[in-house]
Amino acid sequence: MTAEPPLYGAGRDVFERVRTMMQWTPQGRALGLELVRIDNGKVVGRIPYRAQLAGDPDTGIFAGGVITTLLDQVCGMAAVVAMREPAVVATIDLRIDYMRPAAAGRDVFAEAHCYKIGKNVAFVRAIAFEDGPDNAIAHAASAFMVNSNSGRRIGANLRAEKP
Amino acid sequence: MSEVHERLAAALARIPYAGFLGVRAELKGDELTLSLPFGEHLVGNPLLPALHGGVVGALMELTALTQLAIASKSEHFPKTIDIGIDFLRSGRPVETYARARVVKIGRRIANVQAEAWQTRRSEPIAALHGHFLIAEDIESESKFAS
User: Fold this and answer.
1) Measured between CB atoms, does A59 come within 8 Å of chain B?
2) Lower CB density within 10 Å: C or N end of chain B?
3) Chain B residues touching residue A70 (CB < 8 angstroms)
């Protein structure tokens, strides 16, 4: 069975739009997260190495949370790329297997692919690595809610909570 | 014992990434609560605005690792094998807290659950369950390797 071609994921325009979306995220900017490429619906992101993001001051290896955030972000972007009309997504769940620690001093990449998208939910897998997906740091499987902002206005989280 | 706990809380404070997030540790007996004051740099969705899911996951993972080190009476952090994160509510731009419960410590592997919440403990914004390689075994493994 042939997979449906990426719906929204072709052309330079898509790359620019996804890059804008990624830079729109303050946490992504704080991590230095970059969009590397979008190829055949696969989204590749990168976090340049920085000692400030280490999980252990002695080894300088990236904290697990850095890899988690990178995987979450590229998975979300892969879901957006698979849509007919781009919309905001929210993570429902994210499962990560950590095969090995990241190499100290190396940039970490993650490649994500949305293998199924419906009206409400997108399913995405991703791999984090330094050199290539064959030598993985971590594998991720995730589900996203599609168009998670629908029905909620801008600043919805700023309003006072109901007592 | 309590000295070990305090050293762990201090070890957590030395983690560069914990400083990047702005995580603070509070220890009551052997129960650890991590808190994460809101900062603009933690936002994932600036429209709502909402915390980045990865940040909430990272907070719970740090809590699980440290609570497990306390429970296994180790001064070293365990290694994460796998984690599963359920996102339950959008993280509002306020302080976030996390606590972890060590479900089982085996000879090599431990099972830990964690939750993150904001204004109400009974309304968690996210939950984590994970498996971790406990520190004693990491040491013995490295001995075999050398």
Assistant:
1) no
2) C
3) 54
**What are A54's two structure tokens?**
């280490």
Does residue A29 sit at the B interface (CB-CB below 8 Å)? yes
By CB atoms closer than 10 A (0-12, 13-18, 19+), residue B72 is middle
Residue B44 corresponds to which amino acid? G
Neighbours of B94 (CB within 10 A): 14
pTM: 0.90
The angle that helices B2-14 and B53-71 make with each other, rounded to 10 degrees, is: 150
Instruction: From first to last of the 163 residues of chain A, give the pLDDT tens digit.
Output: 333 444 444 556 888 888 888 888 999 999 999 999 999 899 999 999 999 999 998 999 999 999 999 999 999 999 999 987 778 889 999 999 999 999 999 999 999 999 999 989 999 999 999 999 999 999 999 999 998 776 677 888 888 776 6
With CA atoms as reference, the chain B residue closest to A141 would be B84
- What domains sit in chain B, N to C, each tagged with a CATH number? 2-145 (3.10.129.10)
CB spacing of A157 vs B42 below 8 angstroms:
no
- ipTM comes to 0.90
Cα angle: B71, vertex B74, B77; to 5 degrees: 95
Residues A64, B81: C-beta atoms closer than 8 Å: no
> What's the full length of chain A, in residues?
163
Structural domains of chain A sorted by starting position, each given as residue range(s) with its CATH number in brackets: 12-148 (3.10.129.10)
